[in-house]
Write a structure and sequence with these properties.
The structure is a homotetramer of 287-residue chains.
Chain A: E1 4-13, H1 18-28, E2 31-41, E3 46-55, H2 62-73, E4 79-84, E5 89-95, H3 100-110, E6 116-123, E7 140-142, H4 150-163, E8 168-171, H5 180-185, E9 190-194, H6 206-213, E10 217-224, E11 234-241, H7 248-271, E12 275-278, E13 281-284
Parallel strand pairs in A: 5-6, 5-8, 6-7, 8-9
Antiparallel strand pairs in A: 1-3, 1-4, 2-3, 9-10, 10-11, 12-13
Helix pairs in contact in A: 1-2, 3-7, 6-7
Chain lengths: 287, 287, 287, 287
């Protein structure tokens, strides 16, 4: 009987005894902790933990384990979850004209690097725009948007997310701004890639802004969206060196590489339950 | 009454219940875990943990806490230690002609960045060699070495380390090879900086080797020494980009910056109890 | 009348007057130098230059310009070439089972990032192996290899390269070793990606070697092949940080990202005439 | 008779024939170009060049060579200079309370890494503040500043710079803002280190801003000062990865390492005539 793998994530106001509470419960349930990371934010007073554990008990479903943990964590008023690592989240990828991030996600998903179900792609451009990659077997939703139909298109999207039971939205260079209401409802469930090293160069055409300012490194930022544009909690960032020889076109080219790897990392961190919201920021347990 | 801070480090064969054992003990001792990192090496079957905790109990010395932990961890046959974070290790820095790593360590220590007592400097060159930095107030031991006096010089060094109760030796570009016996006795207590990205360019003149091979990045490696030259467990490495324009002299210059920051990081990790030996490799908990 | 763009590359024994010779010739031919990089290797005594220039003269073909430069450079016994930047080289990509580098090259080529003609793909695995990417419209040559047919397979390959007038071979994780003779004939025309930071971890299974040695960074190396395995002149390298948590599988995953970007950079540098052989090393003019 | 080394820097509106003009002149003067880098900014229409050359003629002073170049470049209305590489610029370093950048510059200068004359140090703190480094033999000017004496103190500074014939001012964490007029008069002759990755986190307490925003990398920026705070042309930038575990104090510590290496690089680039102003940005020829 092979062992089964689970991940427990929790956050709460920091108080003595949390670790003892969940580790004793897991021990009594004959589970073995294989990896644990904890963080006590002395500023916010909050405690965060990610605990991976195995169980050899064939009856140990996530539901059964939840009952034990629920009792153990009740005194701490924690936000927590247990996920069977074999369960997969349903992802919807949004894209506009540029498809390098989509192409990268598709490839990683096809070779099994990303543990998720790809529920579909939503674009404000028709399918024939994407000749550089293969969308074979992936539901494609063409939902054009114009100044006139914006609220209606967004309602269509939200309906689709609900119908398809989407756990996470990935804005893979989707160049439309979501409404405040929609953004709020997606809090912690929608990752965007911004093509600059935030907080530098918010808004439109960041590579042109970077070129004009003469920075020596350009970057990209993956963050959860909030109703405030380009201000959501940052999950991952990276940069690359540029020189005076790089024109805006070169920055766009170099930027493609940064964007796709930053977004892919952020997505993987989320899928592996490594990311916690902590006010305006995130806690990301490495792995 | 201000709280006191401790760090518990432990490693043992992985078995269920370790986390529950120490966390329950700490909870009962009214300690609060502020940071915990654990790692279960599925290959070697070993478990590693670093646990920082505070105690508000004024009678809670490291000795008292050790008694409780000793009982809790006895079944696991763990190697463990508890250190009061206000206690400081005694460090001896070894240096030869080049003093950039020594200068860097001295500066970091003087501004309070490195939590250690600098017990002294040992060199095979006389003190007047070091005009580029200030050795004011630091015991300096000039112990010249030649083919004839090598064993005698090493015996002198070992005696000095014992007399001075040295916890850690830092080879800050000390260009003499320690004997096998001495190296073995220093296992896990002697950090060397090698001026290449190991395992590339072992041995002498690594920058010249790198130049000849035409690599596009050069690096440095901080490792614990063993009796096998340049083969000890690696603690930290870093690299920098070079180009065809860089002659060996330029590599030496760029290398100085890499060496000093890699050695300083490794030293800090060791002083903060972040490094564990794991066979030929190390576990380093980030911070 | 739009201007036409050319690139002059030259290398020779360094002697005064080279720059004056070609720059005066280009000036008299009413060309405008838009970018020039030169390097004088004081060790080998060789001079290298890459000169981009525009001509507004509609009759100024590369052939016409060559005549002038030929006269100007004759005294210097230089190796040189002039390429009309609108001409494209013919590339053949070799691949084995792992297709992440091939997928990356295909995508970059399809979106116009790589200025080349993709003449085809050669694999020792059948086409149905590659379901994660689209090979639509690309000639695919399945040339299986076994201990028995190795010389015959290589002869087939060499014939194909000649028939297809291939300018550059890209070994995109092609896991077969080319014979000494074939390697020699491809000197400077065949780029390989090795999945380690050479000269560390030559040969097979470098990620496993890296894991066993406990390095803190892993890398990849793009180099021209020579008859000596993993010893050819290095074009580009890059690394990424790893930790004790990374098992060999994680290194393979992180390595894919490094490999594809290092190979893509090396390929672009070659296509843009930025790379010069200089003994065992290369000169790479940045851009 | 050893050869003498010179560096020619020039910038002008781009027109055909510039390279031919100076290279022919140098050739006729029996000089040998050892390194040349050129850049044609197609946006601003300006041309930049840095040319290193040797002369074996003992009578070939910079003055003599200037005469020839002056004639050759007159038609191009270029801004240019020729510097004998053995001549050294006079540098004044400004510092406030934090001395890590000063300590680094002093050490690099003492070991001969920076080709400059250190004319002195100006501080708004008394000399006894600097116990972590040795100021032996370096003129120290204590010029305290308060809201009342600001213009007077700046006048004192400016007088001192003139008296001491200072070529370059280095603001090594000098935490006073220079007046608009003074800043303008120092254009291109005053390098500041800002402790953030500009344009992010301008102004005061950038590490606290970075911590609050939750960025995943922090950086530093060396730039020429202008009358606009933190907006001057950027010479060099670098970053380092941080995590949620890093509190503002940790950012300050990690930042020290970034600041000192970014400032040291920018200073070296300036001293080696690698940096050109190009509107709001810089051209920096690598080396």
């Amino acid at each position: 009987m092979p062992s089964r793998s689970f991940v427990l994530t929790l956050s709460c106001v920091n108080r003595p005894g949390i670790v003892a509470a969940f580790s004793s419960t897991l021990f009594r349930a004959e589970c073995n902790i294989t990896d644990a990371q904890q963080f006590d934010d002395t500023e916010s007073g909050r405690f965060f933990a990610r605990v991976m554990f195995d169980s050899n008990d064939p009856t140990a479903t996530a539901d059964v384990l939840r009952n034990g943990i629920e009792v153990a964590l009740r005194p701490f008023e924690a936000t927590w979850s247990i996920r069977d690592r074999s369960s997969r989240r349903r992802i919807m990828v949004f894209v506009s004209k540029l498809d390098h991030c989509l192409a990268d996600i598709l490839y990683r998903w096809r070779i099994g690097e990303l543990e998720m179900d790809l529920a579909g792609v939503i674009s404000n451009h028709p399918k024939q725009n994407y000749t550089n990659l293969s969308l074979d077997g992936i539901p494609f939703h063409y939902l054009p948007v114009s100044p006139d139909n914006r609220p209606a298109q967004e309602a269509q999207i939200e309906l689709l997310l609900n119908t398809e039971k989407i756990d996470l939205v990935v804005l893979a260079r989707y160049m439309q701004i979501l409404s405040d209401g929609f953004s709020s409802r997606l809090l912690g469930r929608c990752i965007n890639i911004h093509h600059s090293f935030l907080p530098g160069f918010k808004g439109a055409k960041p590579y042109h802004q970077a070129h004009e300012r003469g920075v020596k490194l350009i970057g990209a930022t993956a963050h959860y969206i909030t109703s405030e544009l380009d201000e959501g909690p940052i999950i991952e960032q990276d940069v690359e060196r540029i020189t005076h020889r790089d024109r805006p076109d070169d920055l766009v080219r170099k930027g493609r590489d940064i964007e796709r790897r930053v977004l892919a990392r952020a997505l993987r961190y989320h899928l592996e339950d490594r990311v916690f919201l902590n006010g305006r920021t995130t806690v990301v347990f490495p792995g």
